[in-house]
Amino acid sequence: MTTNRKVLMLAGDGIGPEVMHEAARMIEWMNDYRGAAFEIQEGLCGGAAYDAHGTSLTDETLADAMAADAVLFGSVGGPKWDDVPRDERPEAGLLRLRKEMDLFANLRPATVFDALAEASTLKADVVSGLDLMIVRELTAGVYFGTPRGTDRLPDGTRRGFDTEVYTEPEIERVARVAFELARKRANKVHSVEKANVMESGVFWREIVTALHKAEYSDVELHHMYADNCAMQLVRQPKQFDVIVTNNLFGDVLSDCAAMLTGSLGMLPSASLGAPGEDGRRKALYEPVHGSAPDIAGQSLANPVAMMLSYSMMLRYSFDMAEEADLVEQAVENVLAGGLRTADIMQEKTAKVSTGVMGDAVLREMGKLDRQGDRRAANI
Ligand code: NAD
User: Fold this and answer.
1) Ligand 1 atom 44: the closest Cα is on which residue?
2) Which residue's C-alpha comes closest to atom 36 of ligand 1?
3) Top-level CATH class of 131-260?
4) Tell me, which fold does domain 1-109+267-379 have in CATH?
């Protein structure tokens, strides 16, 4: 018997509902043609929740997220809520979700589809075929460490300070995610810190090295300083498979890697928590982009980042690698066929709306699925 896979959909604001609609059609497709048994529940988050309930995330929606097998998230925010008190801002809903679900590992793939290699600011041959994954620690480090604040020194001058702090379990659990991922990819991890100048960096390196020796010696491990990593990302990005790093360096390096790929509208992400008693991790999947108020409601949004976030869900929450490959291959084929939303337009390509892009990817999934059936029948 197939158990239902419970997914909570939080479309959010701006283009969130437009791109989520295309992911929802994809989920329906998986149920119809792959017997995937996804059970969808919808909820409000961000400005939409604030308008309806006076808070950007209700306790009920949070409880639904905790009970779901995975959360699919659109985007939140927009000028409409600029004057809302800080604690109720749309973004606060997302931050609360991440905190309560203890989503400590943020996975940001940077993949360049061949058809878009020319869209990168780097030379096509440097990025063509790029496929790397940044694993950023998301719930500790300098963004949360104490003491933090400002004070006045005895000489009357002021100072500001934050604290970079990591415990052994915090480093171990995120490194474990990176090693496990690498085993399913090209089997290589770069652990990134500043062990040359930071005590917490020396400690990070020590813990990662010990874990590698004890449990993951089959994976190729390299240590790299964060400044060198930034340089290598734009010089020779294809040397990387999985990069694991702390919250601060991950914030900077993942945006740097994102730009190698050309457009925000193409970039998915996953945030994973610790495995529960049933072995399943809490998980939230969302595009990297925001709510894009400048194009909301005009069918201009690129739905690919949202679709690829769903394919990450298939891969990492439901172990459905074949279906995830199908989604990714369909996107690749549609791009190769010359269809583009406005954000990724190039010469000699056809501009299409959000919905037409969604139609094309679904059609291509059907085609690939039938080809797979025919190949299986001929074996
Ligand atoms: P943004 O990502 O929303 O938009 C940046 C630019 O990229 C805009 O020109 C937009 O039109 C374009 N863009 C983004 N996604 C696109 C897509 N799928 N297709 C085509 N073009 C796309 O960032 P911003 O303008 O800095 O922020 C807008 C709002 O979104 C703010 O309120 C911000 O706080 C919020 N935001 C939310 C999240 C989130 O929900 N995780 C992330 C970032 C920003």
Assistant:
1) 290
2) 290
3) alpha beta
4) Isopropylmalate Dehydrogenase (3.40.718)
